[in-house]
Amino acid sequence: MEVEFTARQVKISKALRTQAEEGMERIARILGKTARASITFGAQRHVQIVELTVQARSQTIAATGKADTLEAALREAMEHAENQARRYRDRRLEGKRLPKGEKVLTAPPVARPKARAALVIAEPGDGMPASARAKARASIAVHSFPNRATVVEPHILKSGEAIVLRPMTIEEAVKDAEFRDRDLLIFRNPGGDMFVLHRRRDGQMELVEIP
């Protein structure tokens, strides 16, 4: 895997570079050798920050690590990126296992109610032969309804981790969602507008603006 290193107000030691290359080799075994990666080392006050971005064929992985040392921050970013790569690989394998007929969702067949036959009773003198009266039948559809409607109670989990209190930009929200390893994030931008950021089944992040 091709890896690009960037240092901002910090120095990348040889041991740190070796640690990054070993971690990217593990991710390359999951995503493939054709993936490209960029690692940015920086510092903000007393916090060491490592930002990691991996570009695969149809997936972009972004992870951030923050710690007291660059080694710990790099280790944290690598763990987040490796977990995302495994989830992406599992989704691809699960889609390949299904036959083509099962990948297309089709509506179940509609069961037709059985028709109950009833004899047509003819009055004497109506001009219909006896054999015709015996063969004449009418189809009556019989419907059965349940006595009580089935109500399924939703399973609700309350979580405050999906809501960000401080304002942030869309780029910061994407990085924060990847750092928290969450598929749903609700936040406000500096202008006060509220957005919902969530991950779709194909792994892409989708942004929804709340009016």
Can you tell me about this structure?
With 211 residues, the chain is of the alpha+beta class. The protein has three domains: 2-97, Ribosome hibernation promotion factor-like (Double Stranded RNA Binding Domain, 2-Layer Sandwich), CATH 3.30.160.100; 112-142, no CATH class; 170-210, 2-Layer Sandwich (SHC Adaptor Protein). The chain contains five helices and nine strands. A hairpin with a 5-residue loop joins β7 (184-188) and β8. α1 (14-31) packs parallel to α2 (70-97). The longest helix is centred in the middle third of the chain and has 28 residues, at 70-97. The radius of gyration is 31 Å and the shape is globular. It starts with a strand and ends with a strand.
Which strand order spans the largest sheet, edge to edge or round the barrel?
1-2-3-4
Strand-residue fraction? Answer: 25-35%
Estimate the mean pLDDT confidence: 75
Question: Which structural category do the helix and sheet elements fall into?
Answer: alpha+beta
The CATH topology of the largest domain: Double Stranded RNA Binding Domain
Overall geometric form: globular
The radius of gyration over CA amounts to 31 Å
Low-confidence stretches: 115-122
CATH fourth-tier homologous superfamily of the largest domain: Ribosome hibernation promotion factor-like
CATH class of the largest domain: Alpha Beta
Biggest β-sheet, characterized? Answer: 4 strands, mixed
Count of separate structural domains: 3
Number of strands: 9
Q: How many DSSP helices?
A: 5
Distance between the termini: 43 Å
Q: Can you give the helix content as a percent range?
A: 25-40%
Which CATH-level-2 architecture of the largest domain? Answer: 2-Layer Sandwich
SSE succession = EHEEEHHEHEHEEE
